[in-house]
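Chain X:
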Amino acid sequence: MENVANRVVLIRQETYERREVRCRIERIIDELGGANRFFRPGMRVLLKPNLLAAAAPEKRVTTDPSVVWAVGAILKDLGVVCTIGDSPGIDPFASVAAASGMTAVAKELGIPCIELSRSVPFPTPECSVFHGIELSSAVMESDAVVNLPKLKTHGQMMLTLGVKNLFGCVVAQRKAEWHYKVGLRRETFASLLLDIAAVVRPALTILDGIVGMEGDGPRNGTPRAFGLLAGAADPLALDLVLSRMLGCPPNDFPLARAARERGIEPAAESVALAGDVDASFRFANVVLPPQDSLHLLPSFLDGFGKSFLVSRPVAVRGACRGCGKCAFVCPAGAVRVDARGPVFDYRKCIRCYCCQEMCPHNAIRFRKGALLTLMRLFGR
């Protein structure tokens, strides 16, 4: 059989009708070498969807329950022992699981739906940039992880696809610590994500792109029908293929830049495409978040740049409901909430986008900085 290690399968699917979704996912698995390549009876498999927040499926913030159901049903028929699990950003797990439809799916399949908790250290490969990575013990206790991301834009990382979804294996309180540790440089955070992916080593990634999100993702963007299911054994290969189809220039995609810097970006000719989407296909006019970088400036100008040149969070007048989630989630302690809404200390702010990502009322936006305007003007 042809080597399928770097194969990415792209299948058209316009609706979330369960039988159709299952049929398409079965085809993806067959194109990747068949179920026996990944699973055997009795294996303990963690199904890792995107459960960012307590949002209904039609908001397209989370992986659709039909996709999780289809994968769970396929594996259950193979005699695999499945668990659904994630570590949401801030909302209580029970609320997230119920709102996203995961509680109902787990009940129907007769499998647990758990919060990924109890942080434990994992061994990292020698080539890792970051060491001392801790993930949920549920990852270590599983024989394999099936990664079930949602196709969405992301304010900090431009896109959240297969690799970024694995950040959910980091237990909630550790996420803020990592955001603070890596600071402002997007490529540094992307490199951390690559290390986490190398530690988790998902057996399979199946991406829900039937209806995804563009604009102010990953929580407050606009749902968009992409009509796509995608799968791969290598989440990085999947992400790079999809980023091109979404119109994301490689030099603007932090994950691609980080992989290139580390010499682990798979060559385009080594990634074989399968399915029914042509390699030349591009989605039209996808609204992507703007990107800029403080580190175009000398380090002694960091304070000036953070305050005046790079994009920064701003309050949307009249939208704040005073819930305080932005202040709670901020790893740098740069946000407080008063009667007017969120107030930002831009010298503390590390531009991690956590406040915007976790605001349930879309009350925080990022205003383009002068640096981004200059970058666009000069075509960078």
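Chain Y:
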Amino acid sequence: MISDNAKFWIWISIALGYNTTKVKRIAQLYSDISLFYLGGEREWKFCGIFSQKDIDNLSKTKLEQADKHINRCKQLGYSIIAIDDDKFPKCVYNIDAPPAVIYVSGKLPDVDNRLTIGIVGTRRATKYGVDNSYKIAYALSKYGVTVISGGALGVDCASHRGSLAADGVTICVRGCGLNSKYLHENEAMRNAITKRGAVISEYPPDESPRPYYFPARNRLISALSDGVLVIEAGAKSGSLITANLALDQGKEVFALLGNNSPQNEGSNSKIKNGTAIPITDFMDILNEFDNLYATDGEIDFDSISLEDIEAIPVKGNCPIKKRPKKFKATDAPVVKIDSLVDNSEKSPEHKKDICLNTTAQTIYNYIGKEPVHIDKISGDLNIPVFKVLSSITELEMQGLITAHSGRRYTLK
């Protein structure tokens, strides 16, 4: 199934880019998107949404470019759901920047009318993280819960596979095109997901992954989920972006209790600051959603088989039986000469060859060598705190800024 208006919305995505609030504003103004296209430059100027650069991009983008993506989807057997289609999930439409279209391999479940839980975490999961991701997803699926994750190595794929093992329904949200060979280790898993649920993306079928696609992808994971569980997230884990977005969207956030290690620093901090509910098994999650899940039978959490757990790919060395790492000279802490001398006259410089969304780029350009508080960033730039927080996390992950005590930041 391909929405009748898909080509116009794909054309808009090509012209304006992904993860933009302008898509929703267009959808709210035009009940018939073809009239927006046919109106041309005069209409685009009149509606008051676009900059001159946007209008220039709309003018030079040909509708035939959208037809190429549609034909490719027909060739590959993918569906396309446009934002103005009845089948477009309301939970996704309700966020600030919904995608113009969703590309689907498989059948997208009715996420608006069933309990959905997102499970996210590190790609370098330990045995504890892999086991619990698999078992919690398995048990939730047995209770009729749809499991949402990002298809990455470690926690993500353990969650998807746990759901599949329980004959459950799961949705994989990719940070690239559906036909991209990125993470070929999980290709068989993605194929299996399409038989029980869906693999989806906002990017055209053959689009390659880009670093900034993944933080953007996280907003869809949280949007699709009634609650988000974080398993083994470090202080700069991308999973924290998903958790923060879920909080912004009014969703419940959970975190698996972990030991006091860097592997759990981010997830444990969510528990300590009261923004995540601590859990030890799946019932801690279900108890927050009374009467929204199936109640037939009981699952013995400790008896769930982990026979296939060794086959779950994890980034880096195998997390279950790690080989001792040989020390290299390059592994020694690097002490820069600049840190031993007076460096007062040197100032950090903003990098130019980076890829950031508009909000993150604005915040990055604002931050300098003097620590600035998150509230001042929000006030001076007139950007809501929750959006600042999401962008700050992205900038930290890319190593562009340094966090200081009291939620203050400087340029790295």
